[in-house]
Amino acid sequence: MFDATTILAYKGKNKAVIGGDGQVTFGNSVLKGNATKIRTLYNGKILAGFAGSTADAFNLFDMFEDFLVAKKGDILKSVVEFSKAWRKDKVLRRLEAMMIVLNNEHIFILTGNGDVVEPEDGEIASIGSGGNFAISAARALKKHASLDEVELVKESLHIAADLCIYTNHNIKTLTLDGDSK
User: What values do phi and psi take at 27, rounded to 5?
Assistant: First the structure.
């Protein structure tokens, strides 16, 4: 459903990290290889990533940040209110889009259906066409390798790029240190 991206987020012991590839496709053609699909919100205290169209991403990022401001940075209250608003909006709820948002305490996957999903392990989440490849790699690397949070996200996304035709190796990451709240 979400061809053209892979976003992976990891809330580790020392850092919260989000990463994404840079590929933008249209049908079976690559339009751009160095897009940025992740950003910081709320004065650098929240990380967010998006799978879907670029124009929709900007609107949803701005909308979510408005909720963060209204809720004074409380990510839990913000995701609930944001999801209600996204679900109720007749235009926005039709978007084939997903978001991941996280800070050092929480990580959530959000959809236009009103879904607010906190991963079972509370640490790793992924979206996009290569999301299953990336999360599988991240879980294996977390269990069997000794990588820091940034290296784990980057390596997992590179593995996804080796497998998913809609994901490339132009990986970008954003990080929150463990003491940022």
Answer: 65, -125
Catalytic residue among 5, 25, 111, 175: 5
Strands 29-32 and 24-26: antiparallel
CA 170/CA 3 separation, integer angstroms:
16
Assess whether 167 carries a catalytic annotation.
no
Q: 3-class SS at 171?
A: coil
Q: Is this model's pTM higher than 0.85 or not? A: yes
Percent of the chain with pLDDT over 90: 72
Checking if the pLDDT of 75 tops 60, the result is: yes
Q: Is 166 exposed, middle or buried (0-12, 13-18, 19+ CB in 10 A)?
A: buried
Angle in degrees, CA 133, 98, 178, rounded to 5? 75
Say if residues 174 and 49 touch (Cβ distance below 8 Å).
no
Model pLDDT for residues 79-100, shown as the tens digit of each residue:
999 999 988 877 776 777 899 9
